[in-house]
Amino acid sequence: MYRYGAKSSDRLSTCHPALDRVFRLALEISPYDITIIHGYRGQELQDSLFDAGLSKLAFPKSKHNATDRFGQPCSEAVDFAPWVNGGIDWNDTLIFSVVAGVLFAAASEHDIELRWGGDWDGDGSSRDQSFMDLGHIEIIL
Questions:
Q1: Which of 51, 56, 59, 119 could form a disulfide with 43 if both were Cys (CB 3.0 to 4.6 A apart)?
Q2: Cβ(81)–Cβ(88) under 8 Å?
Q3: Where are the domains of the chain?
Q4: Cα distances (angstroms) measured from residue 79 to each of 1, 69, 100, 136
């Protein structure tokens, strides 16, 4: 069984509680370790990713920029990656797809609806995506 390290746990703590529950259950049932790349993103990070073409939305329009009613980070999106053999293979689309499937299974256990960056429109095909983001999951509220 895998456990989130301090950095991943800290990043998850900036997310909507429902996403935290999904990712914690997913790690228990996943055949792969999962690392958390981003939860909440402040303006500087969000805009730098937008400027680099790695995000389609500038601050504060991304679900990564969501806050709660007190202004505290409450990201409605998580960037994740499978951690295999001590690293991340960003080109291994199959492993990303497997982990996304595990996340959807965990979400269904909690009656939570998700959207995945590998199938934005939820039609079961990633061939029609104009912006592929296999390591992105967001909650649909």
A1: 59
A2: yes
A3: 6-139
A4: 21, 23, 11, 5
Distance CA 100, CA 113 (A): 13
Q: Nearest-CA neighbor of 138 among 118, 124, 123, 129? A: 118
In whole angstroms, what is the distance from residue 42 CA to residue 19 CA? Answer: 18
Q: Is 19 exposed, middle or buried (0-12, 13-18, 19+ CB in 10 A)?
A: buried
pLDDT tens digits along 102-124 = 999 999 999 999 999 999 999 99
Instruction: Locate the DSSP E strands across 1-141.
Output: 33-38, 77-83, 114-116, 136-139
6-139: CATH architecture: 2-Layer Sandwich (3.30)
- Per-residue pLDDT, averaged over 76-83, amounts to 98
Q: Which residues of 113-136 are buried (b: 16+ CB within 10 A; e: fewer)?
A: ebbbbbbbeeeeebeeeeeebbbb
Q: Tokens representing 138?
A: 């967001």
Model confidence, pTM: 0.95
